[in-house]
Write a structure and sequence with these properties.
Chain B: Belongs to the cytochrome c oxidase subunit 3 family. Chain B: It is found in: Cell membrane. Chain B: InterPro entries: Cyt_c/ubiquinol_Oxase_su3 (IPR024791), Cyt_c_oxidase-like_su3 (IPR000298), Cyt_c_oxidase_su3-like_sf (IPR035973), Cyt_c_oxidase_su3_a-hlx (IPR013833), Ubiquinol_oxase_su3_dom (IPR033946). The structure holds four protein chains of four kinds. By secondary structure, chain A is α+β, with helices and mostly antiparallel strands. Chain A folds into two domains: 74 residues; 152 residues, Immunoglobulin-like (Sandwich), CATH 2.60.40. Chain A contains seven helices and eleven strands. In chain A, α3 packs antiparallel against α4. Chain B is mainly α. Chain B is 76% helix and 1% strand. In chain B, α1 packs antiparallel against α4 and α2 runs antiparallel to α5. Chain B starts with a strand and ends with a helix. In chain B, 54% of the residues are buried. In chain C, 67% of the residues lie in helices and 0% in strands. In chain C, α1 packs antiparallel against α2. Classes of the chains: A alpha+beta, B mainly alpha, C mainly alpha, D mainly alpha. Chains in contact: A-B, A-C, A-D, B-C, B-D, C-D. Chains A and D meet through α1, α2, α3, α4 and β7 of A and α4, α8, α10, α11 and α12 of D. β1 of chain B pairs antiparallel with β2 of chain D. Bound molecules: heme-A (HEA) (2 copies) and copper (II) ion. Copper (II) ion binds next to α8 of chain D. The site of copper (II) ion has 5 residues of chain D, from α8.
């Protein structure tokens, strides 16, 4: 039966060789396609434009290297063993069917991953702590409140008292404290080139530090599924100089319509809209949104803008 | 084809050096452990949501005498189901049936009191859809109540079987299993008593 | 009848009565503590939880006969693992839901 | 409920499905009647409590569901192949990825796994059945009915569309009214009962039903993996039951566990569902590890290296997998301390997994590697799974995950472990144990076509998705490049990915062909031991007789059958002593599991459409069947000695007979 199998294998060798060529060709093609579509700027996660994204990219690279350090040798050993110990006629590699134990080897492969995980764990912790703090200390941050709606993004600026939909302008070089909530199913706020995402959740005001070092238009999108219009929940984050930012805010104050309570009710309705700008919004809009969805049950440790009198009628103390 | 054997002789499986009865008890025990995890899930939700009263009924408003009564009734029924098992081991069928009936009655009383408690709350407007706290309360306590009710139906079935067949290895095994179940429900109640009621009115 | 008499969960009248009395006592103590507001909140919580755990143990040992049976104690192992998981579910949920909102 | 929406309308694809379902059903009913097979179907299959037959039914169901889930996948890939595609509308696409994910994991991977449990475990431990044969049948039927309930949503009522784990508030009535979400809940809830029962059943079977001479440390590694998976099932599935129960309470009773208003907390659902969901993915992968442990040892002709570590690592994975769930929502702001803790716990899983990989490699080391069909899948598994695992570790680095979460990088990761780990392994297991169940092998040439197409298709489909993740493409979008003038350059890679999906589709078609072809022409296995196996299942004829072992086997350590064979060879003229049979105690067939699950169907269907009377009627039916069963005492019988003798002799004669004819055939060819 053994021999039978071997013969069969041989018989199919041609086919296999052919298939293998095919596979190589396709993989090669794939590589070329990937490379050609690869001006690096398309890989926005790998091309961060701010300190948070950079910090995260560093961790991505570290983790990739640490994994590669084990994975590549494993695969090499794997190929070697399979080739060396193939059951084919004339293979005189040693055969020890009873050999099943080696303390040394076992220690090695419990040990190496432990070390790797130790190192990776360390960097993970370090990065996690770093990105939970403002990226630079000596510049006063700007606060932008973000509310995800079905299916659009509302940005309110407590400092400037202006509001936008589906785009946000921010000053470059200034840490931005995004404060996130949702008045619809939870979404996730993601601007890959500035840094990682964070969920927007009803009743909760979540903090996310981001910062752009270069001016430009950055792609942002919702990352957590919210139903029919989800695919259209893209937004633009435009980083400009501080001076231009101030000018822009002033222009909005002057030229744009106000967002009224009724206007907000309109926004809440499930549909998609284009970019909008507003010169003002109802007082405490964001706080009200958070509270109406259960925000009163939590203590909010960081401020939600300049309206610090957030009610904390929380029953637990 | 092959002759059929009465399951009375189902001290079978000697070929494996163990018997069906023991096997079933182990399986049931493991089931109870998983049931315990089911309750934990509801306990977890309750613990997280217990303050989320939305301005309505709070844990301070529980009827203290009601739950104290329920607790003692269930405790006593756990004891009587134990007495039933003792009677069974002594081979006293009538006494066994009697203790089971007492247990069933106590269980029914417990369920009745619980339904009454729920009804009173609902009357006050404290319904399951009033707040997250109440949703988690009714679900957790109701889940336990449903378990007790199920146990009552089951026990009645066993009483009938005992009356029909007397104490056999099979019925014996069934009784051991239900008494396990009954004690388990008592154990779960202890935590409901403590976490839901006592910590609520505290 | 069969050869498995020795594995049966017997337990004696005495054990049941002791168990019963203990569980009554362990129910009354926390009740008194709570109804008479005898302690500060944290210590009160801890005490009544301890009473509950003790009572649970009594059910296990006096009524459910966890110690009996021969061969490996798979039932005890299952129980212990189950309790570890149960604690994880409850306290894990509490810990994770007890937010501080700052990922970044 | 508005009954005018009872049948899903307005889509040619669905009309097509309606028509073909009706036609196929009629076809099946007619042919069963014409061939007078109703009685046979009832006696031999529907009422069976034989673990082998139950295993076969699981296997068929799993393959069917692989097809259904695969068609979903193909539809998604057609939609995503080009930008601005109008092939599927948003809601339809959303339904499809929801059903795809749900079906693939709960109704494909799980039954495939239970198929192997059922087929292999009792045979490997020298048992005549599982601990609770009737419960086993209940598990199957309950699973099957749950799966069917979920599947009919395609044509009746509409499917769920809020993702395979249906996060609230999206899955609450406010945002997902109607039966779709209910189908999802009840389909999973009902089949979940079956999974939990199987977990109990196999845990007890393994602990208690082994042949008395088999110590735990002699157990084959597949059996160990089943034990580990069962432990994880017991820990995880009650949480699923509870969580779905809460969602039901929210939807049916207007509760507020997870709603936005009145104090509900949606994140609590996310927390709970992953307490189940994360162990769940390890539940399906642990038996996969077990399959490969058997395959590698058999086809390397060598003892498994590091048996002890293999066992410990599996138990460790089963337990530690309970402590990693937060890695699915690192970005929900549970705090730095929580994230770091769970990131590290998650990475720790890589350690025992790595140990397993190394031990497989060193099982092959100094062995004699036979590249048979099952082994082929192992060779593909190693690189695929190791890379997929490595990307898992990258995801586990919490702050890096802020950039990967819900992107196509994640999609690529989990398909790589699910397909490379689970699907490859279960297919390997199917090829490996196929002769044991059916008595013939699957054709190698066709199998190789299937294999290579799967491999190429897999890499072509999923490697580009990692890149897409880095390009910022998020999951669950039905369309791209359309709005707001963003051209993110996703089009070429998506096209490539879709090509890969089609290749996998073709691969699957080859496998179906392979099975059909081999039914007729496959090499018959008359030895009972086609691979020169090591464990007990190979010591009995293929297919195994009803009672598996006429004599309960005596085991002298690990790889019992391998050493027994050596013993037989060494002792010149080894003559098995004439066996002295004893009557064998067996459970009787029962229609109760099927009837009960029909009532479950009624209940599930009623609750889905919020026809509560029907739901409760169904539940009462379930209760009554249970009650009736409890009053049944005449449930077992003995197979008498002469019948055993007859069967055994027939088997022996058949094997010599077939041996002869097949020799002639081979010579003739
Ligand atoms: C069979 C299924 C399966 C398996 C086995 C795994 C295995 C792993 N998974 Fe995966 N995972 C899924 C199925 C699976 N996963 C699914 C379905 C999802 C998404 C669900 C959804 O959102 O819809 C997911 C999502 C997911 C996330 C969430 C990401 C997010 O949502 O943002 C994370 C994060 O930590 C993760 C991590 C891991 C890790 C660390 C492993 C580890 O177990 C891998 C271990 C293996 C190895 C590491 C390789 C071999 C080891 C060595 C050779 C030793 C040395 C190696 C090192 C030290 C690096 N997975
Ligand atoms: C075991 C689990 C499993 C398996 C095997 C697969 C298999 C496949 N999956 Fe799936 N997938 C999931 C589990 C799985 N998936 C989960 C859990 C999700 C998340 C869902 C969610 O977001 O909620 C997901 C999501 C998911 C997405 C993301 C959708 C989105 O977010 O928008 C995509 C996209 O490419 C995808 C593709 C595929 C493909 C191409 C296959 C292929 O391997 C399929 C192979 C194909 C076949 C086996 C086809 C057989 C069909 C035929 C033979 C018919 C032939 C017909 C034609 C060729 C027309 N899957
Ligand atoms: Cu996970």
């Amino acid at each position: 039966m053994f021999k039978n199998l071997i013969n069969k294998t041989k018989g199919n060798f041609e086919v296999r060789k052919w298939i293998r060529y095919g596979k190589t060709a396709i993989l090669g093609l794939l590589g070329v396609m990937i490379l050609s579509s690869c001006d690096r700027s398309k890989y926005i996660v790998l091309d961060p434009k701010g300190p948070v994204g950079q910090e995260e990219l560093r961790l991505i690279i570290i983790s990739t290297i640490l994994c590669a350090v084990v994975i590549i040798p494993v695969l090499a050993i794997f190929v070697y063993i399979v080739v060396r110990y193939r059951n084919k006629p004339g293979n005189n590699a040693p055969y020890e069917p009873e050999w099943d134990d080696s303390k040394v080897l076992e220690v090695v492969w419990w040990g190496i991953p432990i070390v790797i995980i130790g190192i990776l764990g360390f960097y993970t912790a370090k990065t996690a702590i770093n990105v939970s703090k403002p990226p630079v200390k000596d510049v006063t941050p700007v606060v932008v409140q973000v509310t995800s709606l079905d299916w659009k993004w509302l940005f309110t600026y407590p400092g400037q008292k202006i509001a936008t939909v589906n785009y946000a302008e921010i000053p470059a070089g200034v840490p931005i404290q995004f404060v996130l909530t949702s008045d619809a199913p939870m979404n996730s706020f993601w601007v890959p080139q500035l840094g990682g995402q964070e969920y927007t959740m009803p009743g909760m005001a979540m903090g996310l530090w981001l910062q752009a070092n270069k001016t430009g238009n950055y792609y942002g999108s919702g990352a957590s599924f919210t139903g029919t219009g989800f695919a259209h929940m893209k937004f633009r984050v435009k980083a400009v100089s501080q001076a231009n930012f101030n000018k822009w805010a002033a222009r909005l104050k002057k030229n744009s319509p106000a967002l009224t309570s009724d206007g907000y009710e309109d926004l809440v309705r499930p549909n998609t809209v284009k970019e909008l700008s507003f010169s003002s919004y109802p007082k405490n809009l964001f706080e009200d949104i958070v509270n109406k969805n259960g925000g009163t049950y939590y203590d909010h440790p960081h401020h939600m803008g300049d309206d610090r009198h957030m009610q904390t009628t929380s029953t637990h103390h | 084809m092959s002759q059929s054997v009465s399951a009375q002789a189902s001290g079978h499986g000697h070929e494996h050096g163990h018997d069906q009865g023991e096997l079933k008890v182990l399986g049931f025990w493991i089931f109870l452990v998983t049931d315990c995890l089911l309750f934990s899930t509801f306990f977890g939700a309750f613990a997280v949501l217990r303050d989320h009263t939305d301005g309505g009924f709070t844990a301070h408003d529980f009827d203290v005498t009601g739950f104290i009564l329920e607790t003692f009734i269930l405790l006593i029924s756990s004891f009587t189901s134990g007495l039933a098992v003792l009677a069974m081991h002594k081979g006293e069928k009538n006494s066994l049936i009697r203790w089971l009936i007492v247990t069933v009655l106590l269980g029914a009383l417990f369920v009745g009191l619980e339904i009454n408690e729920f009804a009173n709350m609902v009357e006050e407007g404290a319904t399951i859809s009033r707040s997250a706290f109440l949703t988690s309360f009714f679900s957790l306590v109701g889940l336990h109540g449903a378990h007790v009710s199920f146990g009552i139906m089951w026990m009645i079935g066993l009483i009938i079987q005992l009356a029909q067949r007397g104490i056999t290895p099979v019925t014996k095994n069934k009784i051991s299993i239900i008494s396990l179940y009954w004690h388990f429900l008592d154990a779960v109640w202890i935590f409901i008593f403590t976490v839901v009621y006592l910590m609520g009115v505290m | 009848m069969t050869n498995h008499e020795h594995t049966e969960h017997t337990g004696s009248m005495k054990a049941y009565i002791i168990g019963f009395i203990l569980s009554i006592i362990l129910t009354i103590i926390p009740l008194l503590l709570v109804l008479n507001h005898m302690m500060a909140k944290t210590s009160l919580t801890v005490s009544i939880l301890i009473a509950a755990v003790l009572q649970f143990a009594i059910q296990l040992f006096f009524f459910m006969h966890i110690r009996e049976g021969d061969g490996p104690r798979y039932n005890a192992m299952a129980l212990i693992l189950g309790l570890v998981f149960a604690v994880t579910i409850v306290f894990g949920a509490i810990w994770i839901m007890d937010f501080n909102y700052v990922v970044q | 409920m508005n009954t005018s929406h009872f049948f899903v309308t307005g889509d040619p694809m669905i009309y097509g499905a309606d028509v073909s379902i009706v036609l196929v059903t009629i076809g099946i009913l007619v042919s069963l009647t014409m061939l007078k097979k109703w009685g046979w179907l009832w006696r031999e299959w529907i009422t069976t409590v034989d673990h082998k037959k139950i295993g076969i039914m699981y296997l068929l169901a799993a393959l069917l569901m692989l097809f259904r889930g695969g068609v979903d996948a193909i539809l998604m890939r057609i939609q995503l192949a080009v930008p601005n595609s109008q092939f599927l509308a948003s809601d339809h696409y959303n339904e499809i990825f929801t059903t795809h994910g749900t079906i693939m994991i709960l109704f494909m991977a799980m039954p495939f796994m239970f198929a192997l449990f059922n087929i292999v475990v009792p045979l490997q431990i020298g048992a005549r059945d599982v601990a609770y044969p009737l419960l086993n049948a209940i598990s199957f039927w309950v699973f099957f009915i749950g799966a069917m309930l979920f599947n009919i949503s395609f044509v009746i009522g509409g499917s769920a569309s809020s993702g395979w784990l249906s996060y609230p508030p999206l899955s609450e009535t406010t945002f997902s009214p109607g039966p779709g979400q209910n189908f999802w809940i009840w389909g999973i809830q009902i089949s979940g009962i079956g999974s939990l029962a199987s977990g109990i059943n196999f845990a007890v079977t393994i602990l208690k039903m082994r042949t008395p001479s088999m110590r735990l440390r002699d157990m084959p590694l597949f059996t160990w993996s089943v034990l580990a998976a069962s432990i994880a099932i017991l820990g995880a599935f009650p949480i699923l039951t509870g969580t779905l129960g809460m969602l039901t309470i929210d939807r049916m009773l207007d509760g507020h566990f997870f709603t936005m208003t009145k104090g509900g907390n949606p994140m609590m659902y996310v927390n709970l569902i992953w307490m189940w969901g994360h162990p769940e993915v390890y539940i399906v992968v642990l038996p996969a590890f077990g399959v490969f442990s058997e395959v590698v040892a058999t086809f390397s002709k060598k003892r498994t290296f590091g048996y002890g570590s293999m066992v410990y690592s599996m138990i460790a994975i089963a337990v530690v997998s309970y402590y990693t769930w937060v890695h699915h929502f690192f970005t929900m702001g549970a705090g730095v301390d929580v994230n770091i803790t769970f990131a590290i716990c998650t990475m720790i899983i890589g350690i025992p997994t790595g140990v397993k990989v190394f031990n497989w490699l060193f099982t092959m080391y100094r062995g004699r590697i036979e590249i048979s069909q099952p082994m082929l899948w192992f060779l593909a598994f190693v690189p695929t799974f190791v890379i997929g695992g490595a990307t898992g570790v990258m995801l586990a680095a919490a702050p890096a995950d802020y950039q990967y979460h819900n992107s196509y990088f994640l999609i690529a990761h989990f398909h790589q472990v699910l397909i490379g780990g689970v699907v490859f392994a279960y297919l390997a297991g199917m090829y490996y144990w196929f002769p044991k169940i059916f008595g013939f092998e699957l054709n190698y040439t066709l199998g190789k076509w299937g294999f290579w197409l799967w491999q190429i298709g897999f890499y072509v489909c999923f490697m580009p998705q990692y890149a897409l993740g880095f390009m910022g493409m998020t999951r669950r979008i039905y369309i791209y490049n359309q709005t707001e003038g963003w051209d993110m350059g996703w089009a070429p890679l998506n096209l490539i990915s879709s090509v890969g999906a089609f290749l996998m589709g073709v691969a699957f078609a080859f496998q179906v062909w392979q099975i059909l072809y081999s039914i007729k022409y496959g090499k018959r296995d008359f030895t009972g031991d086609p691979w020169d196996g090591r464990t007990l299942e190979w010591s009995i004829p293929s297919p195994a007789p009803l009672y598996n072992f006429a004599i309960i086997p005596e085991v002298k350590g690990r790889d019992a059958w391998w050493y027994k064979k050596q013993e037989m060879q060494q002792e010149e003229g080894y003559e098995q002593e004439t066996p002295k049979y004893e009557p064998i105690h067996m459970p009787k067939n029962s229609g109760m599991p099927f009837i009960m699950s029909c009532f479950f169907f009624v209940a599930g269907f009623g609750f889905t459409f919020e026809w509560h009377w029907m739901g409760f009627l169904g539940l009462i039916g379930v209760a009554i069947t249970l009650y009736a069963r409890s009053f049944q005492y005449n449930t077992d019988y003995f197979i008498p000695v002469d019948e055993i003798e007859r069967t055994e002799n027939a088997l022996r004669n058949r094997s010599t007979l077939i041996q002869k004819t097949s020799m002639e055939e081979t010579l003739g060819r």
